[in-house]
Amino acid sequence: MKIVLAHKYFFRGGGTATYLFALREQLHQMGHETIPFTVAFERTAVDEYSEFYVSPPDGAAHDHLKDMKMSPWLALRLLARSTWSVEAYYKARALVEATQPDIAYVHNLYTYMSPSPIAAFKDAGIPVVMRVSDYNMVCPSIHLLRNGGPCFECIGSGYAPAIGYRCHKGSLSATAARAAAMMLHDSAKVYEQVDLLITPSRFMADLLVAAGYDPWRIACIPSFYPAVAPGCTDGEAEDAYILYFGRIAPEKGLECLLHAHAQVENPPRLVIAGADTLSYAQRLMELSETLRSDLVDFVGFQESGALSDLIAGSLFTVVPSIWPDNCPMSILESFAHGKPVVAARIGGIPEQVTGDCGLLFEPGDVAELAAAMHRLSNDPVLRTQMGQSARRRLTEVYTPQSHAQTLLNRLAKLAPTEDTVAAHPVAAHCCAAK
């Protein structure tokens, strides 16, 4: 099959990009062709078909809002981009005409591309499958988070509550603009044009149903991690540490983590690694100064090799999210290194961290998180057992081969070709029915 992979970012970093690059490699190994469709940022790591890439809203070097020098003109341009990008529509149509793909597999297009490529692909006559890994379609604040806790008020009831609460960036105008764009997408039924919505968790699938999407158009296909680490070491006694890695952002529950770590008796060192896209790390560092700054290290964003070494040398990792995290890649990466995970019982996380490969706690519960960290820090036998179970769970449930095969079976139902009919009996059945 020839499959368009559409995503606003096509450079390494972040869960979706990690997933995309690994999926692309797996699909190539299985004999399929992928066609990237993205924004032409400076860091974009693919250049095939670059003539069809969408222009960046504020220069190729500025791929995050925090890097952009906001002006009224740029604000209007971003609003237009997030609502309906004419350029993205016509670039997507041109890409289809030039490459004649079988199907489009769409990911996060919001902010810099808009959902207009979905309409372009459908108008060009190819099926569209969309992976829904975040809450952009159902929540104006994006995170299902308000006042430090989960919020579901807008699900299935419109976006008026979000406007009243100023959920997006704490701004009435920004929230109203987001809500207006979402209402336009709803009224235009742009997501109704998607043939199949793929979710990485049952939690997300249930949420889409609650928001009004048809259950028969939704399929849960768990994500994957591309490789099992060759080996791991339990942190040496003199240099043992607990590890958090991921985005440095308020919804990740890092303030709760710092407070809980300070409550653990004789705790190991806490290492916090990740990109600080919202300039939030300084606030956390100031908090750690009032708690146990001598036992907390902020090491910033780590490249893949250095991060792998950090995970391998940790006692265990922590995912303290206070928002309904859908399917954190950090959990699967921890499993790949044979590490148990202490994680918040929220969103899709409990589907990943079962009782034999980690410990769950109520999100935001400092005492329960502290108790879980204390237990794992002081029980090497339990750590080893849970680490082995975690690695086993990864190899049984979250492999690229099983994910890609399940995905291809779904794609073949929508875009059966001579080759896919031969490769996938389900496609042959679909063609016979037609």
Overview of this protein structure:
The protein is α/β, with parallel strands linked by helices. The chain has 2 domains: 2-225 and 400-433, Glycogen Phosphorylase B (Rossmann fold, 3-Layer(aba) Sandwich), CATH 3.40.50.2000; 237-395, Glycogen Phosphorylase B (Rossmann fold). It has helices at residues 15-29, 72-83, 86-99, 116-123, 160-165, 172-187, 202-210, 254-263, 281-290, 304-313, 329-336, 349-352, 366-377, 380-397, 400-414, 418-423, 425-433, and strands at 2-6, 33-37, 103-106, 128-131, 145-146, 149-150, 196-199, 218-220, 241-245, 269-273, 296-300, 317-319, 341-344, 358-361. Strands 2-1-3-4-7-8 form a 6-stranded parallel β-sheet, with helices on both faces. It has a 3-stranded parallel β-sheet with strand order 9-10-11, sandwiched between helices. Helix 3 packs parallel to helix 4, helix 8 packs across helix 13 (366-377) and helix 15 packs parallel to helix 17 (425-433). The radius of gyration is 22 Å and the shape is globular. The model is unreliable at 420-434 (pLDDT under 50).
